[in-house]
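Reviewers of the previous submission asked for a worked example of the structure-prediction workflow described in the proposal, so we include one complete record here. The input consisted solely of the amino acid sequence. No template or homolog information was supplied to the procedure at any stage.
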Amino acid sequence: MPKNDNKFLKSNRLLNKSDFQGLRSGSRFFASGLFVFYFKPNQKKSTRIGIAVSKKFGNACQRNRLKRKVREYFRNSDFKFTGHDL
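From that input alone, the workflow returned the following structure tokens.
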């Protein structure tokens, strides 16, 4: 059975409040429309991503769908090997 390298593992996620606060302090950001992207290098080889969607964006179903799409894009991209926190 072939190995699937496109999984979205816990090591690829920002998991708790301190991870998100660490990302916001001393990071660069880019704002575009509905999105604000914070990014900074981390000490790991893999990129970690955290997704937070405001309640101002639709209902729960729409927010969850947006997060699923962002995770899917990240999971299939080569960007996950750049060593940043997003």
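The two ends are 32 Å apart (CA to CA). We consider this example representative of the routine output the project will generate in years two and three.
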